[in-house]
């Protein structure tokens, strides 16, 4: 008569089954779940923050429609100081991230921001290659939009938006696209897509055994530390907090070390991507914008 499997054997078998299922699920999504946490909720619109705005809808080459907001500078009839293309982080959508840049129009800067595919009112499902395409679609729209052509253009990316922004800015500069960026700011940004995926997978016991093979499903063509040097001679500002519990401080330092001059590092002390709740950090950004914008 065959003996029944021991309880320990059953537990081990169930554990390996769970691990295999987790690995399969992440592999099929190309590790997208590590980067993208979109939702369709409208948290706040710019008018609730006493800001003028215009809804912008852009079509992508692969059939998606992206939604964005154009926030004109408050200038009292004078010329705007410049335009900031803002790329938000990986959770929610522009209606929650708008608080990070709502203070800039009163300072005299236009702001343009979009939701990547799958976020907010944008159609489709998020993935790395698609999002990289989306941010370039937004930049090309901005390059042809007359109100943005009255002054310098800056790129501001936070967290995931910084990773996407480094790839975009390096390509924009390398290809000699117009208008040229006057400055690029990367706040709370990881050193590379593959590197941070491996780190995050390694921090969870179910995915720890698969951190290396699963991270290989992510293209290594867009690692920030490999691309950020190509942005030179456009001035770069790296912002990172020693209290960042999502993206380690050493990622910001690695990006700064890889960047070429002119470059600046702002060491902060806030939670992840909460830089601009502090007036002193707002002033540091404004000083960078004024210096690099001519």
TrEMBL record:
GO terms for molecular function: hydrolase activity. PANTHER family: ALPHA/BETA HYDROLASE DOMAIN-CONTAINING PROTEIN (PTHR12277), PROTEIN ABHD13 (PTHR12277:SF81). This is Alpha/beta hydrolase. InterPro entries: AB_hydrolase_fold, Hydrolase_4. The keyword Signal applies. Keywords: Hydrolase, Signal. It comes from Marinobacter santoriniensis NKSG1. Residues 79-210 form the Serine aminopeptidase S33 domain. It comes from the Bacteria. Residues 1-20 form the signal peptide.
